[in-house]
Amino acid sequence: MTDISELLSAYHRLKPDPQAPAQRVHFGTSGHRGSSLARSFNEDHLLVIAQAVADWRREQGITGPVFVGRDTHALSAPALDTVVEVLVANGVEVRLEACGGYTPTPLVSFAILDHNQGAPYLDSGQAGLADGLIITPSHNPPEDGGIKYNGPDGGPAGTGVTAWIERRANELLAGGHGSVQRMSLPLAKKQATPWDFVTPYVEALEQVVDLAAIRTANLKLAVDPMGGAALRVWDAIAERHDLGIDVVNRNLGGDFSFMPPNQFLAVCVNYLLSHRPSWTRSLKVGKTLVSSGLIDRMAGDHGHEVYEVPVGFKWFVDGLASGKLAFAGEESAGASFLTFAGEPWSTDKDGIVMCLLAAEILAVTGKTPSAYYQTLMARDRPSHYRRVDVPATDLHKVRLAALGPGDINTDNLAGDPIEAVLTHAPGNGAPIGGIKVTTRNGWFAARPSGTEALFKIYAESFVGELHLESLLGEARLLLNP
Hints:
Structural class: alpha/beta
Shape: globular
Strand content: 15-25%
Distance between the termini: 34 Å
Number of strands: 19
Strand order of the largest sheet: 1-5-4-2-3-6
């Protein structure tokens, strides 16, 4: 159990050492994450990150509002205050939840896209366009804090942008953040713009999920927001759309303890490609290299190409914004998909529409997602998937990130010939920061953690649990020094 009071005290009290790599600003797959207790997510970090974002906007000529949301993690509250103090002092219009509560990530993405709708931001200047900051460490433990920047396309910023922000933030941190502009919190909040994130999002949901089918089926649905930021959104959905929803867990707190399953992605891909007649065959299905190979099968069954990218939802943003990706999902089941008309909905992860899609699947097919999954497995080879975390030194992590095909000194893996050794993603050619080895009957992938002293091994077998154990065991032998 984390001592929340100590966590909050440490946010203001502890000062990071700019010379210590673990205490500097570091943007991983989407944003900066850390713990105040480890001096990796403290007030000084948020001061310099917010100033760096203001500087980036000035550099790019982005003059519209910044939509700012936060989740229920304990450190998100003081982090939000710090960000508002800095952005408003820099003359930025900050739009915050009018009720002073929490704002789920997809609502920030939707607000950015809605504001910028029709703006030719890819071809001309960005004056007047909106962007956003989301103060969230995603599905990580309660001691973590996190912040990510979403650009005018509504999704997590790419590596070029985050590298600039990271570099500028660390310059400010090394300089004692004396160049950071800041005003008092009461004055800053008084100048911020109260914003209704919930109503426009909830009213537009019929563009992306078949709510009429759910309503007609007279389902009795239970929703557990699991202590996350979406409680008020689910209340609004239940009231506005009359879906028979009962919110069964109304607790909100900083303990944030949950993790979604991976197999749901395969179910969603199969169902959507069967029930969205306006989607053309040219649309691709986005997945990360460490997501289940079942997604490839589901896409292939419907004649759609898979777009495989490194870990991080930022790699899907352009495809979703341009309407070239019908669906995009990562291994933790964070996903988004196009509207019925094949237009962008959200360019960031949207758990709300994914939950409503589960209800649509039941309403239309008469099967729960788990029953739907069992039907898929009855006609196809089963999937056995697992991720393990292995302790690693910094030196080992550097070595792992630099591995190439020549470092795999075997032609076989778990009894099968190796078909491919990947260090770059097939979809966009981007480095994966690790390695993936595939055979006809399975695969493993490994990548070092950007924030923890470990590396992650993902593996999937299409044979069985014993084969999966062999994949994981041989992967560890190949990767350990």
